[in-house]
Amino acid sequence: MAFYYNPLSLILVTFLLSSISLISLSEATKNGGVTIDLIHRDSPLSPFYDPSTAHFERLRSLFRRSVSRHSALSLASSKSTSNSPDLFETTLTSIGGEYLMKVSIGTPPVEILAIADTGSDLTWTQCAPCTQCYKQRAPLFDPTKTTTYRSVSCTSQQCQSLGVESSSCNKSNNCLYQVRYGDSSYSNGDLAMETFAFDSSTSNESVVFPKVVFGCGHNNDGTFNETGSGIVGLGGGAISIVRQLETTIGGKFSYCLTTLDSKFSSKISFGPNAIVTGPNVSSTPLVQKSPDTFYYLTLEGVSVGNEALAYNYIPNSNSKASVEEGNIIIDSGTTLTYLPNSLYEGLESTLVKSISGNRVSDPQGLFGLCYEMPINGEFNAPPIIAHFTGADVELTQENTFVEVEKGVVCLTFVPSEDLAIFGNLHQMNFLIGYDLENQKVGFLPTDCSKTQ
C-alpha cells in the first residue's frame, strides 16, 4: 500500500469529546450557522508548511498549480458540452485546490484534513482497506471503526445523481462511485452515508452534519498531494455538501480569503452567518450552465480609470457586441484570473499607459506584464474594476500585482483561449456570499484578517 504513518504529522486523531460541545446543524443555524477555518496550503498555519522552502519557490509552485487547474477545468467545461463518451472522466473537474479544512468523520469522530473545493461536488476520503492508495501523511479512515457508517443503495437518489457512467453496483446492490479527473487521476470506492462534524472557529463547539453522502475511496491514485486526505466538495452539483445541506443552511455559504502573506486563517461560513448584506455589497446573478458543478457569473468587462473594456473587446472599435451569460466561473481553487485573449490584451495595453516604471520580462515565463520594483519598494498601479452584471468589483493593487521574484512584480491576470476564471487572488479581502436559493453571489470589501 502506498501510504505511511508519521506520528509527528498526525492529522487523523480521536476527538476529546469532553472538551468539545457537539451540537446539531439545525441548532447551530438558529444561532447563526457555523464558521470554519480555511487554511491555505502554503500558509505558516498549514501543518505542511515547510519553512526551509523559499518564499518565491512557493509562489512558483502556486502558479504552476493554477495553470494545471485551469487546464483541467477548461477540459471539464468543454467536454460537458460535447456529448463526449468520456464525459464522466472530466466533468468532475481537476484535483484539489488551495485551501484545506478540518472535518471529522464517523462515531466516534476522527479528524482529517481535506481540500475545500468549489470546483468539485463529491466529498471523498481514502478508506481502509485500500487496494491502491496514494501516499498521505495521515492514516486511512476505517469505516469498520464507526457506528454511523451506512452503505448507499444503488436505487437511491444519491446514487442516481452521480450519473450512469460514474456509478455502479456491487453484489449487495450497494452503490459504487468512480471519479475521473482530467489528468487521469481517479478515486473509486463505496458511496456511503456518515456523520460529519466541523469545529466552529467562533465557539468551542463541533457542529454535526448527520447522514452526509460521501465517497469512501478504496482505490485512489494520480497526482494527489499527500497534504490532504481527500476533498470536501463545495460545487453546485446535487451531491455536493452545499446542496445536501441546502434546506438546513438556507442555500447560503460564504468565505473570506486572507492575503497570501497573512498570519491569519481564512473563513468559510454556512447558514445565516453567510448572508452578505449592507450598503457596500455588490451582487450578481448566478447563471445555470453545464456542468452544474461550476458557479457561473457574467463578466461584462473591466475598466482602468476612465478606460472601459468590454468582455469581447475589439481594439480600435466602438461596437458593443452582446455578452454571453455565464461567460466566467468563480473558483476558490484557482489562483490566477484567466481572461479571453482580446480582453487581456486590451487590459495590458491600458495598464502600460497608466503605469510609469521599467517594464521587464517575467523570469517564470508565465506573466505578460511585469515591472521592476522601484528602489524605494513602492510600486504603484491603478485599481482595476471587474464589471459583473449588477456588480462592480474594485480590485486594488494588492489583488492585481504580486512580486513573483525579488524586485519583479507582475499582473495576475493572464490570457486564455479556454475557460475564463475569476481566481482567488482577486477574491482576497472580499466577503463573498453564495445564495443558491436566490441564485446570486455577493461581494463585500472586507479586511478578512479581522474576521477572526
Automatic annotation (TrEMBL):
A GO biological process held by the record: proteolysis
Compartments where located: Secreted
GO molecular function: aspartic-type endopeptidase activity
PROSITE patterns documented for this protein: ASP_PROTEASE, PEPTIDASE_A1
Domain Peptidase A1 stretches: 99-444
SUPFAM superfamilies for this protein: Acid proteases (SSF50630)
Gene3D superfamilies: Acid Proteases (2.40.70.10)
Alphabetized UniProt keyword annotations: Aspartyl protease, Glycoprotein, Hydrolase, Protease, Secreted, Signal
First-listed, main subcellular location of the protein, grouped into a coarse class: secreted
GO terms for cellular component: extracellular region
Keyword Transferase appears in the UniProt entry: no
Leader sequence segment: 1-28
Source superkingdom: Eukaryota
Family: Belongs to the peptidase A1 family.
Name this protein carries in UniProt: Aspartic proteinase CDR1
Annotated source species: Sesamum radiatum
